[in-house]
Amino acid sequence: MNGMNKVMSNKFYIAFYIAPALLLLLILVFIPLVLSGYYGLMDWDGIGEKTFIGLENYITGIQDKLFWNSAFHSFLLAIFSTLSLVIYLTVSFILASKIKGADLLRKIYLIPMLLSSVAIAQLWVKIYNPSNGILNVFLMSIGVENPPLWLANPSIVLFAIFVPILWQYAGFYILIYYAALKNIPESLIEAARIDGASAFQIATRIKLPLIKEVVSVTIVLAIVGSLKYFDLIYVMTAGGPNGASEVMASYMYKLAFSNYNFGYGSAIGFLLLIITLIVTLIVRKLTETKDKLEY
Amino acid sequence: MGRIGYFFLYLALIIVGLFQILPLIWLFLFSLKDNNEIFAGSPFALPSEFRWENYAKVWDGGIGTYFFNSVWITILAIILTVLFASMAAFAITRLKWKLSGLVLGLFMVGLMIPIHSALIPLYSMFLSVDMIDNPFSIVITYTAYNLPITLMILLGFYYTLPHEIEEAAVIDGCSIHRMFFRIILPMTTPILATTVVINMIYNWNEFVFVNTFISSEKYKTLTVGIQNFIGQYMTDWGAIGATLVISVLPIIVAFIFFSNKVVEGISSSAVKG
Fold it and tell me: Quick check: A23 contacting B, CB < 8 Å?
């Protein structure tokens, strides 16, 4: 098939088919990342002249208590998200155990995942409304005298923000786990059952190890996703009260687009990138499944 | 497992289902009430009178404009993303060139990028070419950032297409473009539908790019528009509810009609991260 190879390796055609996607990727995704590191070396308000100041912004960033405070909140959310996987996994185990209507249920669970974070945030701001939100209306109806001000109390705001996150992503993780569990051949389960294994043993000793790889992927997704949270928090609390729900991305956004400190904002944005990449690599390494299971 | 055991399993699943769905039912109910009824009545009571005027009021008050912006920006970005990603998938899986592996690797890395790290440079790039407050900056940004995931979903399908197709096409004297646009692209329709649905959800719901690059009311999309709007109607819960319902309705409708495609798309987007 010489003619064939000649046609399929024609340089003009290759450029024609790959160029639009590749150029957009390079210009709008990769070049900005490099520029972010570069702008981080500048003193710059976004409009005026850039002044080269070396690593000053990065050194300030590493010593910036507010930045580490926001990073701490991001990591807390990452831990909550990872722990919540246990709940999702449990629900998925139930859902995959010969339940009638499982398909409909998992679709109902998925609905919040389809909505914009802005709509979710606005809805939950209403749910948490101190006097008229359903949560406090319910608490008062069962006799709680002074229900909490969920989003105004610095010591609970982060938990209050985590509930809509849990709500939003539940369907997503359940969908993934459910699909993985349904992939396990029935014969394996049957064999264990004949050997006298209980339902709990089958779940923890047979099914769980078989979907280990999928669980690893979801741990990476949960952690890395949490480090990037922005929309929901920005709309619900804008990082408040008094920085109690500030996360890395919202802190960067505030520096750049509220304080017009583009140089320092870029440095923080670049640190966010580095932290995300390092954490991704570490989590991948830690959750790597060495023995590829075959079944 | 006994009957009682199954009873508790169903009970647990139904409680999870209620947790997922009740906030949305509450939202829909209060979007049809006025403040008196919302504040004094029981949260899940049906409205004494269905106040559809809440919807008419917010639609005429500006939501209509945001809605149409969301529609055309979403559609245009979907077309560009799916077309460019399909062409790239064709180039990577069918055409023969040395750097294809490297380029594929770049797209894979693109999956992991936190968009916020690119936000400031993107803003200054658009500013320097006078594209701030221009909706096309949003369209191309959506396209660029959705290319990696769209390409990943498409690739699996392209790898399964038999090579005999292009051999036959070349022998018949068919040009490359004709082969791609008339033969291969139509064959990928089922997977294209999945990528369209996924892109629709991403584009419709995107917030931070529009919030950063667009300042005129006439170009804002729903996610950013409802933010301002709700500030304006802060005390009118019915209006806020109607605004939120309008903003989520197209996605819910798409889900009702294409739920299997959505499920498929969301599962395959799990590689994102």
Answer: no
Residues 6+ positions from A51 with CB-CB distance below 8 Å: A42, A43, A44
Q: Is A142 on the interface with B (CB under 8 A)?
A: no
Residue A89 has pLDDT above 80, yes or no: yes
Give me the residues of chain B with pLDDT under 50, please. Answer: 272-273
What does the alpha-carbon distance between residue A187 and residue A19 come to, in Å, rounded to a whole number? 49
In this complex, is the C-beta atom of B238 within 8 Å of any C-beta atom belonging to chain A? Answer: no
If residue A192 lies in a helix (H) or strand (E), which one and from where to where? Answer: helix A186-194
Query: How distant is the Cα of A155 from the closest Cα of chain B, in angstroms?
Result: 24
Which chain A residues are closer than 8 Å to B113 by Cβ? 29, 33, 273
- Would an 8 Å CB–CB cutoff place B79 in contact with chain A? no
Q: Are B172 and B233 a contacting pair, CB within 8 Å?
A: no
For B17, phi then psi, to 5°, come to -60, -40
Q: How far apart are the first and last CA of chain B?
A: 38
Residue B49 in tokens: 């009178």
Dihedral angle sign, alpha carbons of residues A152, A155, A157, A160: negative
What pLDDT is recorded for position B3? 81
The verdict on a CB contact (< 8 Å) between A253 and B119 is yes
Q: Shortest CB distance from B87 goes to which of A21, A26, A199?
A: A21
Q: Is B25 an 8 Å CB contact of chain A?
A: no
CA distance to A232, A282, B20, B144, B229, per residue, from A163 (Å): 11, 27, 11, 32, 25
The pLDDT score that the predictor gives to residue A34 is 92
Q: What's the pLDDT tens digit per position in B31-74?
A: 999 888 888 888 888 888 888 988 999 898 889 999 999 999 99
| Residue of B6, B7, B20 to mutate, testing the A interface (most A Cβ within 10 Å of its Cβ) | B20
Residues B167, A87: Cα–Cα separation, whole Å: 51
DSSP for residue A43: E
Average pLDDT over residues A169-198: 89
pLDDT at A10: 85
Which residues of chain B lie closer than 8 angstroms to A248, CB-CB?
A: 116
In this predicted model, which residue has the larger pLDDT, A84 or A216? A84
A284 Cβ contact list (under 8 Å, min separation 6): A216, A220
Which residues in chain B are contacts of A287 at CB distance < 8 A? none
* Closest alpha carbon within chain B to A232: B207
pLDDT at B232: 76
Gap between the Cα atoms of A61 and A53, Å rounded: 14
* The pTM of the whole model exceeds 0.95: no
Chain B residues within an 8 Å CB radius of A233 = none
Q: Are B125 and A32 in contact (CB under 8 A)?
A: yes
